[in-house]
Amino acid sequence: MREGCHHAAAMAAAQQLSHVYPLGARLDGRGRLQIGGCDALELAREFGTPAYVVDEDDLRARARAFVSAFAARTDDFQVHFASKAFACTAVARVLAQEGLGCDVAGGGELTMALKAGFAPGEIELHGNAKTPDELRLALDAGVGTIVVDNLDEVARVTGLLEERGATQRVQLRIAPGVSPDTHPSISTGGPNTKFGLNLADAERALERLAASPWVDVEGLHFHIGSQIMELAPFRAALERVTAALGTDFSAWNLGGGLGVVYGPDDAPPSIEDYAAGKVAMVRELCGPGKRVVDEPGRALTANSTVTLYTVQSVKRNVATWVGVDGGMSDNLRPMLYGAHCEVEVADRFGGETPCIVTGKHCESGDVLVRDALLADPRPGDVLVTPATGAYGFSMANTYNGQPRPPVVIVSGGDARLVVRRERYEELLSRDV
Ligand code: PLP
Predict the structure, then answer these.
(1) Could you tell me the pLDDT band of residue 178, with boundaries at 50, 70 and 90?
(2) Which of 300, 304, 302, 365 is CA-nearest to residue 338?
(3) Could you report the per-residue pLDDT of 7-35, keeping only the tens digit for each?
(4) Which fold has domain 2-55+302-427?
(5) What is the mean pLDDT of residues 390-408?
(6) Which DSSP category does 394 fall into?
(7) Which of 192, 284, 291, 355 has the most CB atoms around its CB within 10 Å?
(8) Residue 362 annotated to the active site
(9) What is the pLDDT of residue 12?
């Protein structure tokens, strides 16, 4: 009887598998989650849990959507993968193959991007506190652009270039003083932010850069935040920047930030509308013939990926606590800024038991989902949390000596391991 009920619920859910899941994901006739043509329970058995499962076709489709949306509106554009969102070589390689450039936030991501196959000239180095070593590494590699963040860096970059007798293209990161409606922890362009130069300092930086024969200031950059659900703040930021600093720059980099669907209430602009809006605002406010640069991270990777866990314990206190074999070590977002996460039993979608899904870490705050509705969860069940492809793997850590999970890429019924699970011995491998 109960099996039958679950079956019926699963079939109903099959028609409704939401946009939170990768594009090709579905429930099969038994109500089991299939992703990239692979069965979620079999993936859990083969690769263990927790595991990140990336749907390659979804990743490629989103990359193509970005490229074609910009290409339909301008000949002069660049789409750079903000690699911090999913700094995994194999994922980056897929995006390099799709013709994207790459934005790196430091020496580690630069090393990864080079290994993934991005042409050095298509790489852009970011960072509000780049070290001299990171700058040297970037210059040695021949990165296309250094995005200069502050006045100290102006001196450091021009000094290093002079020493080498080398020239370098740079953009200037501006803090436009605009805060989109997103969580303060992922708002980055407001009036008092650690990122970029305020408008007055930007003028000073431009004067100093103009005095150096070694730099070519190709453009201005701003990135106002992440998980942005409307286009108006980008326009407001661009208006402020052009009003203060003029339009005499060939490249305009409006950062990334496009929001994604994490739950039923999220309705971000489409990639099409986002690209159309950005191209139009650059044309209107900066004039024709300008290059538009974009740096999506979350919108490329978040929905491509799910995390699989195994339930280890079900405890009935005041609430029902479902303990899984991962948590804040593989998905920090719920703990860092209260991010919402969906969750289902991978072979019994559409449950009705209210539960709190917790991680295994020694922190009361290690809660993945506070308001889960699960189908009578039991130890041994495989749980799936969708939309974990952005800022999950990248922020993974080894708290409590937890080895970091593997990454499995699925497509057309094949699954390939691209990052293996960390081993206990590796946790000790830096001991001297
Ligand atoms: N560009 C810069 C400079 C960033 O700092 C970030 C993320 O914080 C991004 C792009 C990517 O943002 P998102 O993942 O929201 O697209």
Answers:
(1) confident
(2) 365
(3) 444 444 444 588 999 998 999 999 999 99
(4) Lyase, Ornithine Decarboxylase; Chain A, domain 1 (2.40.37)
(5) 98
(6) G
(7) 355
(8) yes
(9) 43
Q: Please, where in the chain does CATH 2.40.37.10 lie?
A: 2-55+302-427
> Residue 192's pLDDT is what?
79
Q: Looking at 5, 102, 341, 362, which residue is catalytic? A: 362
Task: Tell me which residue of 306, 261, 299 sits closest to 409, measured CA to CA.
Answer: 306
Contact 88, 290 (CB under 8 A): no
Domain with CATH 3.20.20.10 in the chain: 57-301
The reply to whether CATH 3.20.20.10 applies to domain 57-301 is yes
- In this structure, are residues 55 and 411 in contact, taking their beta carbons and an 8 Å threshold? yes
Residue 189 has pLDDT above 70, yes or no: no
Ligand 1 centroid, distance to 257 Cα (angstroms): 6
Q: In this structure, what are the phi and psi dihedrals at residue 206, rounded to the nearest 5 degrees?
A: -65, -40
Q: Is the CB of 126 under 6 A from ligand 1?
A: yes
Q: Output the pLDDT for position 181.
A: 75
Find the 226 Cα to ligand 1 centroid distance in Å: 6
80 close to ligand 1 (CB < 6 Angstrom)? no
Task: Tell whether ligand 1 has an atom less than 6 A from the beta carbon of residue 180.
Answer: no
Pocket test for ligand 1, best of 86, 271, 295 (most atoms within 8 A of CB): 295
